[in-house]
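Q: I'm writing up a methods section and want to include an example of the input and output format. Could you take the sequence below and give the corresponding predicted structure tokens, formatted cleanly so I can copy it straight into the document?
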Amino acid sequence: MTKIIAVFNQAGGVAKTTLTQNLGYHLALRKHNVLLIDMDPQGSLTIFMG
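A: Here is the clean output for your methods example:
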């Protein structure tokens, strides 16, 4: 069964990117298929993930 996890908040500086990056990384380590989509205009997640 497919599960969707969304991390969002309008406030800035509340660790959304850090949480998303680490959650995706650890789910991938456990052999889950992971797709991270960076909707932030600053593109921080894209920069962090390479």
